[in-house]
Design brief:
The structure holds two protein chains of two kinds. Helices cover 76% and strands 0% of the residues of chain A. Chain A is an all-alpha fold. Chain A folds into two domains: 205 residues, no CATH class; 242 residues, no CATH class. Chain B is α/β, with parallel strands linked by helices. The chains are: A mainly alpha, B alpha/beta. The interface between A and B is large, with 51 and 47 residues.
Chain lengths: 574, 265
């Protein structure tokens, strides 16, 4: 060890076993400093300032949503506790859990994820690795909304029964811990399952079976709805019968849910309210076991990642043989080449497929919500189909708004080749239009299965709106893609960099397009001429096509003018 | 006088207050194997980016094959091939799919694209990797694929940024043979690399860039003579290697590190 003094060796912090060892603490400090430096360096550019501003606005919007939900839940919790209605309190807790888990599914591709693989080259202990993984995610949208909802319930219950405050804090903290860990468990396991062909096929088969079961259930549900629409007496009678029939089932569900985390949190509070501390402590202990079990499930996946697991896979032999035989698209030109590349990239990237698939899956949830609340006065049941379809199109819209994001270093190839950027964007637009159409069709079929056959005029107006929304999205998408691209990680769902600015603008444009649709529908309904929406949307579609062609025409100049920034952003090292 | 393959006048690129490349004027004749050298951060990659249309110069002009070259010069782009710094690969395609994609982007017909793809994959020893995605390739394999993509359309001018980095000795030997074959058939090659032995063996002309400025330009013999004349033992010029010439020109020759890293084992 010539030249290496004992003092220098001693200066190296030893890797400790625990997440709070000297080395681990030094690493946390280094990471925090690095993230701070990244933030401050980001502010040197206009894009960085804009991104930070967008992040602030997003947080504010979601915080407002969380505060609103929390206040509502708090008021309901307050009245339920005052009325000693402990049977209904679990509904609130389940609602919080549902939101906590569903928000990341709906927003996974919008949110920034922290790529932990970069830490593996350092002497980071496994426990520190796990802690960092959990802690980093605490700033996400689901935690923000979940915590604000929990605080609302805490306030409501504490005001009604101040003596229960400590127990409520303990119960809600346990439930929050389960939720925080469960969100991450779902994401990392989905990453794992979706990355492998076999598990992906099993999940796809389960999804198809689920759709088939919906199709089988649909006639029965519609028969019940049709009967219910005859008259109010018949509807009331049907409700009573259903309530009687459902009672044993609901009792069973209630008994089972008491053993699940939201139920255990309520059992703990109820026992404390009834001065049965042993039962309350037992429920709290059971909640703790759930925290441990969820943590263990997360640790299994993180252990694999910590060991450097690669989720990459190669195309199947069959696929390889098929591709060596010929081209998918017969045209020899660059348009066909780019479309074929886009298709290959999409089919081999789970994050992209998830980005498209998650909103379609959410149509099931939306459709069910529309169905269950259809009897409320002023309910826009008539417009359920366009709303479901519009929601599902959030997925393809994200691809359209960042249509160069999947290129990575390949962006250089696009600028080196003698193909104009206009042609490249045209090919990408054609491919994305295809994806848009297929997604709209899938969402429409799903919504029809859940909500029943739509009104013919509504269907025609929805198609006309799509003809307007598609070129409008493509026009804005091309402009955004050239102005503020961000690199997509095509391999891992949990390693997206995301862009708050892009997400915020995407949502703004989508909301505007939906707002136009809502305004047109509302005006036409007001005048009792819903069919008028069709020609109005077709005129708007003509204007949108004109705008799209203009943007496409100018894309060559803009793209070449910004090529340095595009390459720096998309080709830079991960 | 025959037009040059590559010609620049006063080529300059500034990034804010930093001038990465300043007033570079050079001429690469057709059929030349041209080595472009410089220490890290000297401006080699920035120059290549400007020569290939990936970066707009702040000042100065670029001519390729006698025509002004800019990002929108699409016909001229058909005449050049590039292995850029980042390799420009599409990670989610197989090697075959990627080469077919590139061929079609350069406007090759289906038959030619397929035939050249097969030949290039065979030549680069990538034909057996039909199932692997590019993202799962080793660094060396990616380099070979990037080189195959750069030549699939038969360019007359080839720009190579560190083409041998990470490539094994056997493949490097084959690549050198391929490049020399291209030169014999009239192509021009503009090469940057830190492996000076390769430049010494392959290139007839060399330019050296240092801190953004061109500090030497000429044939190897001219450079050797120029450096030797400034050394005390001028008669030893024949024995000067390119490494010695390079170190002498960029000013690192004979310097000791300012501080010995005594804590290193």
């Amino acid at each position: 060890m010539a030249g290496v003094g004992a003092a220098e060796v001693a200066a190296l912090a030893r890797p400790g076993a625990g997440p709070l060892s000297r080395l681990a603490r030094a690493q946390y400090a280094a990471l925090a400093a690095m993230r701070w430096q990244l933030l401050t360096h980001g502010l040197r550019s206009a894009e960085g300032m804009f991104e930070l501003g967008a992040r602030g606005i997003s947080c504010l919007l979601y915080a407002l949503l969380g505060v609103g939900l929390g206040a509502g839940l708090g008021v309901i919790a307050h009245s339920l506790v005052l009325e000693r209605n402990w049977q209904l309190l679990p509904v609130l807790f389940w609602l919080v859990c549902f939101l906590w888990q569903l928000v990341p599914v709906a927003l996974a591709s919008f949110q920034q994820q922290f790529d932990m693989s970069g830490l593996l080259r350092f002497p980071v202990s496994f426990s520190a690795f796990c802690l960092l993984y959990v802690v980093f995610g605490l700033g996400d949208i689901s935690t923000l909304i979940g915590v604000l909802c929990s605080l609302g319930i805490l306030t409501g219950v504490s005001v009604a029964r101040p003596d229960l405050s400590a127990w409520v804090v303990a119960g809600l903290a346990g439930l929050a811990a389960v939720n925080i860990l469960l969100v991450r468990v779902i994401l990392v396991w989905m990453d794992r399952w979706l990355a492998r062909r076999r598990t992906r096929e099993i999940l796809s088969a389960l999804f198809v079976m689920f759709l088939l079961s919906l199709q089988l259930l649909n006639p029965a549900l519609h028969e019940s709805r049709a009967n219910g629409e005859r008259n109010s007496e018949a509807r009331a009678a049907a409700r009573r019968t259903m309530a009687e029939e459902m009672k044993p089932l609901l009792n069973g569900v209630s008994a089972v849910q008491q053993w699940l985390p939201p139920g255990l949190a309520v059992v703990e509070m109820e026992a404390a309210a009834e001065h049965r501390p042993a039962r309350a402590l037992a429920a709290l202990g059971a909640l703790g076991l759930y925290v441990l079990a969820t943590g263990a499930l997360l640790a299994v996946r993180l252990r694999a990642e910590y060991r450097g697991e690669s989720l990459g896979e190669v195309p199947s032999q069959k696929e390889a043989e098929k591709e060596s035989g010929g081209w998918l698209l017969n045209g020899a030109g660059p348009v066909a080449a780019v479309m074929e590349k886009e298709l290959h990239t999409l089919m081999r990237s789970m994050p992209l497929l998830y980005m498209i698939g998650a909103p379609v899956f959410m149509v099931i949830v939306l459709g069910s919500l529309f169905r269950s609340s259809a009897s409320l006065p002023g309910h826009p049941y008539l417009l359920s189909l366009p709303l479901c379809v519009a929601y599902a199109l959030l997925g393809p819209a994200q691809m359209i708004y960042n249509n160069l994001g999947a290129e990575g270093t390949g962006i250089q190839m696009l600028f080196l080749s003698p193909t104009p950027i206009e042609t490249v964007l045209l090919a990408k637009n054609l491919f994305h239009a295809l994806v848009y159409g297929v997604t709209a069709l899938a969402a429409g079929i799903l919504a029809t299965l859940i909500l029943g056959r739509p009104n013919g005029v509504v269907l025609a107006a929805t198609v006309a709106w799509l003809l307007f929304a598609l070129p409008a999205n493509l026009a804005v998408g091309n402009a955004f893609s050239l102005a503020m691209p961000h690199r997509l990680n095509l391999g891992r769902l949990t390693r997206q960099r995301g862009s708050a600015a892009s997400a915020l603008l995407t949502m703004f444009i989508q909301t505007t397009l939906l707002g136009v649709a809502a305004a047109v529908f509302a005006l036409c309904l007001y005048f009792g001429r819903l069919w008028m929406a069709v020609p109005v949307f077709l005129v708007l579609a003509g204007a949108a096509v004109f705008a799209w062609l203009r943007v496409l025409h100018n894309s060559d100049g803009v793209g070449n003018g910004r090529r340095d920034l595009l390459m720096t952003t998309l080709a830079k090292a991960e | 006088m025959e037009t040059a393959a590559i010609e620049t006048h006063g080529l300059t690129r500034r990034f804010g207050a930093l001038t990465a490349v300043e007033d570079v004027t050079l001429r690469v004749a057709r059929g030349q194997f041209f080595g472009f050298l410089g220490p890290n951060g000297a401006g080699k990659s920035t120059t290549i980016k400007m020569l290939t249309g990936l970066l707009e110069p702040s000042a100065g002009t670029v001519e390729i094959l006698g025509q002004p070259f800019w990002a929108g010069a699409l016909e001229l782009k058909r005449q050049i091939g590039v292995v850029p710094e980042g390799m420009a690969l599409a990670g989610r395609l197989t090697a075959r799919e990627y080469l077919r994609f590139v061929g079609r982007m350069y406007g090759l017909d289906r038959e030619t694209t397929n035939r050249r793809t097969d030949e290039l994959l065979e030549f680069m020893q990538l034909a057996g990797e039909t199932r692997k995605l590019v993202t799962d390739f080793s660094h060396g394999m990616q380099k070979k694929l990037a080189l195959a993509a750069a030549v699939i359309h038969g360019p007359r001018v080839l720009f190579l940024d560190e083409p041998f980095e990470g490539v094994d000795a056997i493949a490097a030997g084959m690549l050198k043979t391929m490049l020399q074959g291209m030169i014999q058939r009239g192509a021009t090659i503009f090469l940057t690399t830190h492996v000076l032995e390769i430049v010494e063996r392959l290139c007839s002309h060399v330019a050296i860039i240092h801190q953004g400025r061109l500090v030497a330009n000429g044939s190897l013999e001219e450079l050797r003579a120029g450096v030797a004349s400034s050394l005390p033992g001028a008669e030893s010029s024949q024995r000067l290697t390119l490494e010695e010439i390079f170190l002498s020109i960029v000013g690192a020759g004979g310097q000791e590190p300012a501080q010995e890293l005594s804590w290193l084992a």
